[in-house]
Design brief:
This protein has 237 residues and is an alpha+beta fold. It is 43% helix and 19% strand. The protein is built from eight helices and eight strands, in the order αααβββββαβααααββ. Strands 3-2-1-6 form a four-stranded mixed sheet, sandwiched between helices. Strand 2 (87-95) and strand 3 form a beta hairpin. The protein is globular.
Length: 237
Amino acid sequence: MHNSRTPLMKWILTMYLVSQQDSINAVRLADVIQVTYKTAWLMLHKLRDAMSQVEEEELLSGEVQIHTHVYGLQRCKPTFNRLAHEHPILIGSSHHVGEENSLTHLKLHQLTTPDLDGNLLTKYGAAQFSERHVEQSATITSIVQHYGRTRRIPILHHYVTDTISWMNWKFNGIGGKHLQAYLHEYCYRFNRVVRHQSAFNTLVLTSMLRRYPTYKDLVARDYRRRYEFNSHGLQAA
């Protein structure tokens, strides 16, 4: 059947589908808009790049809690010695003052080797997260440094397990290289809901004002390489 959709129509439809609660994977998108898998993958990752920009610019405020967890291809307790499919992540959340269950902002942040000492979030890792993602006026009420302790706050445990289930169900699991892009995608939609904003409209506006990375850039990107050594020691990249 002849495909009558123009490139612009395909792009707008892709933004609409990504903005929906369950999003869409590249295999399904390629079938819906009649493009190759490579083109669908590229379109989705360009939009994740835009969503990542939004998420990086919005900071946690009010009362903030920081907990660590681990993403894996199976829902299981983290192992003492991390397996290849286990990736440590950090959950940051904003709440109304005195209302622990009133989650108003969610951040999911992939941890890298310099952030960790075994299965323990280091002071350096916590400080780096706070500097990049928390407003100076915010109050950090708790930092849980060990994996799998999010059950102390049920609402955080709910959303981190929901994120893991979504990534494993929709995408058959995510590797460490691009994991942060998918964490940003989940938080982008969640934070639009709690802020009473349109995920689609925000994505359209953000997309109009940016220069997207190329396929070569995206394939070469590894979100785990956030640090580099230089003459002054370990610095954030």
